[in-house]
Amino acid sequence: MTTPLVSSKMFNPVVSPVRHTSFFTKLPADKLWKGVTSVSNAGKKRGRGRAVGKKTAKNLNRGQVIGVGKTNMLWPGLNSPIIQGKELIQQQKLPDDPEREAKLLKLRDEMGAFRLLRLSPLDRGWSGPKLPGRSVGRPDPVGEDDFEGFDTIVLEFKIVCNMKGNLGRTRRTSAFVVTGNGNGLAGFAIGKAQMGMTALRKAKNRAAQKLMYVERYNEHTVMHDFFTAFGKTRVFVQKKPEGYGLVCHRVIREICKAVGIKDIYAKVEGSTKNVQHVAKAFMVGLLQQKSFEMIAEETKLHVVEFRKERDYFPQIMAKPSEVKTVKSINDMDLNLYLNDGKVATKKKKYQVNESDPTWKNHLSKTERFRNHEQVRVNLLVDHGEVRSFLADRYPECRQIKFVKRREES
Amino acid sequence: MATRAAMFTFSKFRYFPILKHRVAKFSVSSNLLNASALEPGYSRDPGEVFFKENVQTLLERLTGRDCDKVFHNRKLGERLEPPKYELLTQAEVDHVMAEMEVKLKRKLQMPPLLKERDPIKKIYSFNPELQGFDDSKYVFINISQGITNRNREVVVRDPNGVLREASWEERQRMCQIYFPVPGRKINVPKMFEEGNIQNCLDRDEFEFVLDRACAQFDPDDPEYISVTRKTYDFVDENTKYTSLRPTRHFGPMVLHLVLSKKMDNLLFHFINTKDIDAAANLVRLFHTVADDTSPTEVDEFQLIENYIQGPALKKPALELAWQSFLEIEKQRREVHSQQNNASN
């Protein structure tokens, strides 16, 4: 048994199963591509394929043509006609196109992740990518009038439903917008439509047809403090000096911008989330303002303005045609008269309890910083820098100044 | 009231070595100031003229009164407040207006035009045995109440043993520490330095510069004199009289121009703006300042003409302006009489 045996088994062919058809060969390219890149209907319903910043597949075939490649060759019958005139075109090499590669790469770079249109932070709305708070441009021109200088801001953009006997729940989009020229003219309106954009357009153009003129004091604030209400929404508005800004509910802020009011304080009480009520209450209040002449005529008294920056010089704003000699109780104060004797309750200012141990603790901790701010200012005024009283003797002891690194252009 | 003297001890000075540096600064600035002492080319002592009653009335008339300009919006350096409104009867309006009249008078009170003060050189005693007692001066100030800062006793013991009265600069500094004047700083603001003041003047901030100089310096302080004279001359050279017209600084400026014989530009301005009352008052002021006489001419036109023919320095320009003014006046009268005839 020492002779090697050659087994007949060693020469048996190895049988491995081979499939010559697969879905690659069975399906056309576009269906294959769709299968790889898209999400099925059932998947969509579950919210698949909606991830933010998801990388989408790049179609590398885009921009490529059969017969055109890295080497610029002329293939008669493939990328050029065979006969030109009476001459037979020969296969030949043309000079290379250096931009081809770059063009292809650029095309591929443009594919890929889907990017939202970048908005300037000032142009964004109140919240995320949503519409409320965003500008949608001026209203469409009507005949000659092209609404120069107008701007429209969306205040509310929501879906509203209605039940119908035959159609069931029907949905529409409702847009509530304010439009104005920032110079006293403003209007607001609601527009409803199946499509959001249509609703916006409807609302914008309706608002342009309902413009109202609002009187302003020196073109920067309201004429006087006032109280106004609509439904459960109550608004307390205060006149403010130049430079104060718009300190109010965001709906009121947008209306102020449309009207051209720059300085105001407004407190909304009651229902603050009902956008339409807030807007209506504020607008009604603006329209019900009284001019100084009206106040003077109604009270039969002089309206006199005192400003601190003018050293309380009595500036007579309006004179009545006839002056009465005895004042009623409501004439003692302008706000009292404007509100028919009603006074808005003011929150009591918090008063520190001097014997409170926590207050004492706070004082002991902050006492050593109490004049720092003023000292800094004085040092900057005198020496142009914040420095120690030893700086004369030890000039090397200087505060390291922060110098902004210049961008190399 | 008992006299209480506050004393800077040695230890106190040791903690403020910067103070020594500032003391050294005084001597530098006083050298600078001596140079400016020669500057004003006045014919008379301005203080003597300024406080005369008829000069004051003339200056007040020249200043005029314009509430809107006097009570214009000022930058207070603090947050603005919303305006306050009141509903007033006629009697109340009259009352607040009367109060405003008093306020206006106070606001238009003119800062005096004075000559420079004499430096203080009084020495109380010299004690050679104290020489080198310390390397700092000791300053003593009487901080009792009821004394004006002008009369307050401030004395200095120098390291060389001299006990002397404090110089004006030391005195002002000590008084500012113990009795701070609002708006005044211990160190002279950089605004009043040579290049910076020119910058302010180029931006037409005359009232601001003069107001701040009033707050910072005494009216006979050499620095006050140099700052204000510089401002007055700048206004005169650029004929920007309207920017100072209804303020308290207009009177001193006019007096300065008259005293330094530079009033012809101003007269030219008055004639061009057809302000004949002011022009006549200016000529009257000229005569009062020149020889303490009030002119005999009653007619304002005659008064001005006599000045232009007589002592005026810029005769050709003034004559031309005066003639054209008379021409226009004549035409105006003719048109007026024609209108009257037509309406009759």
TrEMBL record, chain A:
Major site of localization recorded for this protein: mitochondrion
Keywords per UniProt: Mitochondrion, Ribonucleoprotein, Ribosomal protein
GO terms assigned for molecular function: RNA binding; structural constituent of ribosome
Subcellular location: Mitochondrion
A cellular component term, taken from the record's GO annotations: mitochondrial inner membrane
The S5 DRBM domain, residue ranges: 168-214
Protein name (record): Small ribosomal subunit protein uS5m
Annotated organism of origin: Daphnia pulex (Water flea)
From TrEMBL, chain B:
InterPro entries hit by this protein: Ribosomal_mS22
Signal peptide (UniProt feature, chain positions): none
One Gene Ontology cellular component annotation held by this UniProt entry: mitochondrial small ribosomal subunit
GO molecular function: structural constituent of ribosome
Pfam families: MRP-S22
Name of the protein: 28S ribosomal protein S22, mitochondrial
